[in-house]
Structure formats: structure tokens, C-alpha cells
Amino acid sequence: MLPFILYKDLHASPLQITAIIALKPLVSIFSVYWSAAINKRKDRLVSNVIGANICGHLPFFFFPLVDNAWFFVVSFGFYMMMARGGVPAWMEILKLNIPQGHRERLFAFGSSFEYVGGGILPFAMGWVLDGYFQAWRWIFPITAVVSLVAAIFQYRIPIKIQDLCIIETARPSLSKQICGPWKSAWELLRRRPDFFQLQLGFMLGGTGLVLMQPALPVFFVDVLQLSYTELAVALTLFKGVGFAVTSPLWARWINKIDIYRFLCWVSLLAALFPLCLLLAPLHMVWLYVGYLVFGIMQAGSELSWNMSGPIFAKEEDSSIYSSVNILTVGLRGCFAPVCGSLICFWSNSSTVMVLGFILCLLAAWRMGADSKKLRVAIE
Predict the structure, then answer these.
(1) For residue 282, which phi and psi values (nearest 5 degrees)?
(2) Alpha-carbon gap, residue 278 to 349, rounded angstroms
(3) CA pair distance 261, 275, nearest whole angstrom
(4) How far apart, in whole angstroms, are the C-alpha atoms of residue 325 and residue 310?
(5) What is the DSSP letter of 242?
(6) Dihedral of the CA atoms 46, 91, 55, 51 (nearest 10)?
(7) CA-to-CA distance for 60 and 137, rounded, in angstroms?
(8) Residue in 207, 185, 203 with CA at minimum distance from that of residue 309
(9) Tens of each residue's pLDDT in the chain, 379 residues
(10) Cα separation, 255 vs 195, whole angstroms
């Protein structure tokens, strides 16, 4: 909700709103440098997760003291960078400790449990934000303290000694440290064309969704004139319900069909989201239906995005696969939000949503074609 908070309470400029939306995927480019430290170093997995958690939350403690909107934009970008940076370590921990089949169900359960909280808190948060001027300044540091408690439990995650693979090497040069993650990603995509095809599908669908983001704050505040409570109900309650209820279903389904067909259905649901938003001015129920569909889609999207590394890696180290996922998120963050903002400025928010719909349909077509090729190859 931060883009809406900054637009409504701090009167953030369109450039600042675009920046905060662009940073969410863009900072993934820098996240890979944090995750590169765990490559072939399983002894660093837990410390990598804990460090990302602590560093990412530190800026929130300064929210009550700062008035410059750019500080909040940068703080959000830094938080997302550290959150994404810890993903490869998390996925490798799951791969080491949980057998295939069980890890998808565990991931879905954990995600659903997280979203249940996201479905309850919006009511309290929305009322507080509407009733107390700039109450969000204190909500961020308070909830950051709660998040940091997780470090106690993360420290106790077991990594079996026999699974450790510690390779001590000389410290690489600065140029190798900068280019290393990109070189490793390119080599992997050349070696695994099947994984490359998956990235094309992710890129098309993800671009469609990110393209729409700059138009949403203005559309919700100026066109629909939503309160914080209404925003919270749509953005977190209905999305959270859709996510939590369907995550276990997605987890069972991902082991029964190939991942390309799985993502074809995810992309079709993503295409329904902008269609529902375009109907919202006619009746508000379409806003809630749209975010219910978005939550269902996101449950499948997050499961496939996070699990694709272990699925394709099999017995290899999965962290490099997960790092490639993060890099492609960063790449589309370089252009999709800016394009969406410019199209919205030159045209209107409806045009942006129609373009997002088309890109999501193209992703569904791409994944469907890859699934058909895979089935033909197997037969």
C-alpha cells in the first residue's frame, strides 16, 4: 500500500510513484550480488537469510523522523532488494531439507499462513490509517520489530553437516564479482534451453502485470476515490483469501502437470485481472473480484517462480536457477514501469490495462506451446 500512502498523505509526484513501482522489480538486478555469496557455500545459507532479513528492515525505524518522499522510495527499494536476495538461500534450504513433493506443499502452507495474516490485518490497518493522521509512520517500525523476531527461528534452521559443500577459493577481482552473476546466468540459459523458454514466459506475463502498476494509484484514488479501508480490503483481504484458499490446490497440481502448462493457466488468470478492473467503475464488486482473481493467480505464480529453481536443478545447486529468476525480474523492471507510466500519461489507464491483458495472453500462448512441444517430445 506504500505507493497509495505516499500519493495520498505526502502528495508524492508521478515520478516518485513510478520510481517506487519500478524499484520493486528493478532492484532484483542487485539482489543477485547478495545471493552470489552462497554459490557452492551451503554453510552460508542460514546467515544469508538472517542478514537479508535484518538489513532489509532497518530503514523502517527512521520512518517517523523523515518527511522526504524519496527516502521512503529508496527504503522500499532496499527492502525489496534484500527480500529478493534471500530467496535463493531459502529455496536451497528447502531443497536440502525437504523431499520433492513435500516441499511444494510446505511452501504453499507457509505462504497461505502468511496471507491469512494479510487478510486479517487490513481491517485494523485501514481503520487506523483513516482515523489517525499519518499513522503509517509508526506502523512500519512496529511491524518491522515483529518481522525481525523471525531471525531467532531462522538461526535454528538445521543444515546437515554431510550436506555441506565448502569450497574455499581466492577472492575474485572486482570485475569478476560484478560480471560473475551475469556470466553464470547466461551460461545456464545457454546450457538449459528448456529453462530459457520458461524465462520467456515469465518475462511476458510479468511485464504485463508490472506495466499496469503505475496506473493503479491514480485510478484507485482519483477515479474510484477509495478510502484506505477499501484499498486494504481489495489489495490484501480479497487477494489474501484467493491466495490462501488456492495455494494448497496449486501445490498439488504442480506435481501432476508440466510446469509450462501450469504457467499457462497462471497467465490466463493474470489476463482476467485487468478486465475486472476495467469493469470496476460500473460496480465496485468488480474491484474485489479482480483482486480475488489476482490472489488466486499470485498463489500459482509465486509457487512456480520459487519452485522452478529446484524443479529444473534436480540434483544440482538450485541457487543459480533462482538467481536467474531474480535477474529477469530486474530486467523487466528496467523498462516495464516506465513504459506503463508514459503510456498512461500519453493515453489513459484503460489503455495500459488493455496492453497488460494482451501481454498476459501472449505469455499463456507461449507456455501452452512449450507444454505441447514437451508432451510431443515425451511421446
Answers:
(1) -75, -40
(2) 9
(3) 22
(4) 12
(5) H
(6) 10
(7) 9
(8) 185
(9) 787 788 778 887 777 877 887 787 788 888 877 876 666 667 778 888 899 999 999 999 999 998 888 999 999 999 999 988 888 888 888 888 888 778 778 878 887 777 666 666 666 676 777 777 788 889 899 989 999 999 999 898 887 655 445 555 555 566 666 777 778 788 888 888 888 999 999 999 999 998 888 888 777 877 777 776 777 677 777 888 888 888 888 988 888 888 899 999 999 999 999 999 889 888 888 988 999 999 999 999 988 888 888 888 877 777 788 888 888 888 888 888 888 888 888 888 788 889 999 999 999 999 998 888 877 666 5
(10) 17
Residue with cell 493474470: 270
Q: What is the DSSP letter of 238?
A: I
HSE (side-chain half, CA atoms, 13 Å) at 145: 6
Residue ranges in the chain assigned as alpha helix (H) = 2-9, 14-26, 28-35, 45-57, 69-85, 87-97, 102-131, 136-148, 150-155, 174-191, 193-212, 216-218, 228-232, 239-253, 259-279, 285-313, 319-333, 336-346, 349-378
Q: Residues 6 or more apart from 359 whose CB is under 8 A from it?
A: 204, 205, 207, 208, 211
DSSP line for 59-100:
GGGGGGG---HHHHHHHHHHHHHHHHHTHHHHHHHHHHHS-T
- Closest of 296, 328, 322, 294 to residue 307, by C-alpha: 322
Of 126, 155, 87, nearest in space to 305 by CA: 87
Q: Which domains does the chain have, with CATH numbers?
A: 2-157+169-378 (1.20.1250.20)
Whose CA is closest to 220, among 377, 366, 1?
Answer: 1
pTM of the model: 0.73
Is the CB of residue 299 less than 8 Å from the CB of residue 242? yes
Q: Is the separation of the CB atoms in 37 and 114 below 8 Å?
A: no
